[in-house]
Amino acid sequence: MKVEIWSDVMCPFCYIGKRHFEQAIEKLPFKNEIEVDWKSFQLNPEYHNANNETVYDYLSRSKGMPVDQAKQMTKQVADMAANAGLSIDFDTNIPANTFNAHRLIHLAAKHGLQDLAEEKLFEAHFVKSKNIGETDVLVDLAVEIGLNKDEAVAVLNSDEFAEAVRYDIYESQNLGIRGVPYFVMDRKYGISGAQPVQAFTDALTQSFTEWKAAQPKTTITSLNKNNDAVCDENGCEI
């Protein structure tokens, strides 16, 4: 069963939601039958950090709140992340435009490394305080996850996968997705936000049960004219 996840790597709730979703998956007996497809989403597609803006300044300006309020808000998010086993450092976090990061994720998907790229971008942005809007940072991450450096440089210095990113965003609009993370299960059910692990477990179980029941049953018509030379649980017929 396919689960599509619309996410932005500058979104802390997307990072937390990813971890909760993974923890839910690990509890399920059918975990190997779940296929995850990460989809691009940009919370602020026009943003460019030209003045070394801090995350507190960014939130203060974009949300119209005092810096102290922005710090309190991010502290609550950091505490929520810690409960999920994540360490987010907002004091050194660097806001960035994520369009090229999403293009890198599409390149990684081409090589079967999409989930690892998503994870490493979250880690770079929220834990290691890297500027994921910079090409050099993205190239280093590409090499770290096993991508060819020359290919990564070529992609990031071109517009390759730009349309793929835009199409993901277009799809999200058609599906009525206005915020992330957003998890779509079998294009039938959706769940938004960094929900608790149990909420993901319940949603996945319901979706998978219905998906499994809808799968066509395979039947084989036997062409044997007799049952000779067959071994089964009762032994072998000679």
Automatic annotation (TrEMBL):
Keywords: Isomerase. Gene3D superfamilies: Glutaredoxin (3.40.30.10). GO terms for molecular function: isomerase activity; oxidoreductase activity. The keyword GTP-binding does not apply. Residues 3-204 form the DSBA-like thioredoxin domain. PANTHER family: GLUTATHIONE S-TRANSFERASE KAPPA, THIOREDOXIN SUPERFAMILY PROTEIN. This is Predicted dithiol-disulfide isomerase, DsbA family. It comes from Pedobacter suwonensis.
